[in-house]
Amino acid sequence: MTDVGVGRLRHLVLHGADRVGRATPAGRDRAVDALRAAAVLGVVLGHWLVTALVSDGSALRTASPLRDMPWLTPVSWLFQTLAVFFLVGGHVATRGYAAARARGVPYHRWLTGRLTRLFKPVAAVLGLWTVAGCALLLSGAEFGTVRTLVKLALSPLWFLVVFAVLTAATPLLTRLNPLWPLAVVLHVDLVRFGLGGPAWLGWVNVVAGWTVPYTLGAAWTRGELEGRRAGWVLLGCGAAATAVLVVFAGYPASMVGVPGEGMSNLDPPSLAVVTFGLAQCGLALLLRERLRRAMRRPVAWAAVALVNLSAMTLFLWHQTALMATTATGLLAGRLPGLHTRPDGLDWVGVRLLWFPVFALALAVCCAAFRSFERAGDPGRPSRVVRAHRPSGRGTAAKARHV
Questions:
Q1: Using CA atoms, how far apart are residues 294 and 292, in angstroms rounded to an integer?
Q2: Domain, as residue range, for 334
């Protein structure tokens, strides 16, 4: 590319970034969007790194590099960002609900709007994988392979169900102290691990565990977490509690599930993943001011805005992008880092080289299915500039231009 072409591209990028910045309400807390974008990208990149589809003859089976390379465990600490997502979700939902009440919007109308935006993009995923699964079975594909693919593709949906339940319960959770759901998680684990209780009891933690960061988001809305002391307390206590649980109580060090391991911190959520989430939330709160300063840069803010506008599409389709690349690659044989067993450092290096291909496949998915995310909120401004904005006719006018 010539210097003229590079200069032209740079001008277009900066011009587009300036337009996004000018269209954003002045009072918007951009740190909220930065945290949401980081949480979404953490989930995407984490799955791309620790989810492997190994070709075993005519079948594909799941594997994880964390099983053969336990020294990679800190990767799960970096990319398991669901607690931050629920923190931001609780903050935005409680703030939005308070604003709706102030405008006289009834609860059912507020909830319908939020759930519509949440679930309309799901229809495309369910529709495509219903057709794809049936087509694969009819073409003679092994049932185990089809089951593996469909399970991976639809695995993100559990999160949406839990998030929808917590969203519906927002009026009840607005002032709930996070210590209450934390106590539920503690007692559930004491019963199932310490007293030999039934394993199914752990599924209570699917709601209780993620209610902890969600109610922390509500406390943020109430202004109770504005000082840095709250962030340091959450970070320090959460990290210390997690370390004690891993070292002395036998909880896995990995914060994601590892195929073949006897216990998972995430399926269902354990006390360790909840205390780890407290540490993550504390760190997120401590980073707010730095993120606000960073988001004053037009290009950085435009990138975060772009991720937020496609957050649901990225979340729902990133596993499909991984599997589409893997299946297409099989036409060329067993490719390293894509179909081979994740059992060495060389696999990690090659897998990282596949990331741009995964990203390209995900970009194709976004281009094809982004309209479903827009359809979730018809006739209204984009969420990236609509949520938590100050009131005022001029502000609303600016928001419509993005």
A1: 5
A2: 40-380
Residues 179-212: b if buried by 16+ CB within 10 A, e if exposed: eebbebbbebbeebbeeeeeeeebebbbbbbbbb
**What Å distances lie between residue 185 and 209, 216, 314, CA to CA?**
6, 15, 30
Fill in the amino acid letter for 351.
R
Instruction: Please check whether residue 251 lies inside any domain of the structure.
Output: yes
**Total count of domains within the chain:** 1
In tens, the pLDDT along 75-102 reads 889 999 999 999 999 999 999 999 999 9
What's the CA gap between 251 and 247, in Å, rounded? 8
Could you tell me which of 299, 209, 284, 381 has the C-alpha nearest to residue 32? 284
Q: Is residue 346 part of a domain?
A: yes
Inside any domain, residue 193: yes
What predicted TM-score, i.e. pTM, was given to this entire model? 0.87
Whether residue 27 is contained in a domain is answered as no
Per-residue pLDDT reduced to its tens digit, 134-146: 998 888 878 888 8
